[in-house]
Design a protein that fits this description.
This protein is an alpha+beta fold. The chain is 30% helix and 38% strand. The protein has 4 helices and 7 strands. The two termini are 25 Å apart.
Length: 141
């Protein structure tokens, strides 16, 4: 079942503009790489441009499950995001995603594909520094 993207998650994504995307190779080896083009696609999906990660397509073809981690650097909090991904190398999703990034960035980036990620589960990600400060103020995260 897909999870709705909250306003807070949208705010963290807009602020961070960076996530770390984790996949697993066909041999079972983890692969994590930064993605600087993470954006909200719709109420349940995110996307990023696949610019320089040749293993991503191979990994997702073998196993579509991914974890994304996005953290706002100033507040030091964010989210673990779990779901499945599809690769788009052409077509409507590819064209629309490229146009969205180009409009925001002011330039068209050379992407070999778009990774469209359907959000199925979220969990808070709080750094120990943020958690420690929250505890000192009497709050629990």
């Amino acid at each position: 079942m897909l999870v709705r993207i909250t306003q807070d998650l949208q705010a963290v994504i807009r602020s961070a503009h960076l996530c770390f995307a984790a996949t697993v190779s066909p041999e079972g080896r983890p692969n994590v790489s930064p993605k600087g083009t993470i954006r909200v696609w719709d109420d349940h999906s995110l996307f990023f441009l696949n610019i320089a990660s040749p293993k991503r397509r191979t990994n997702l073809a073998a196993n579509p499950w991914m974890e994304l981690n996005v953290v706002d650097q100033l507040s030091r909090r964010g989210y673990h995001l779990f779901g499945s991904a599809t690769i788009h190398m052409s077509g409507e999703v590819f064209t629309k995603a490229i146009a969205m990034i180009a409009a925001e960035e002011g330039t068209e980036l050379a992407a070999n594909s778009i990774v469209l990620f359907e959000l199925e589960e979220t969990a808070p990600q709080v750094s120990t520094g943020h958690w420690h400060e929250s505890q000192k103020r009497g709050g629990a995260q």
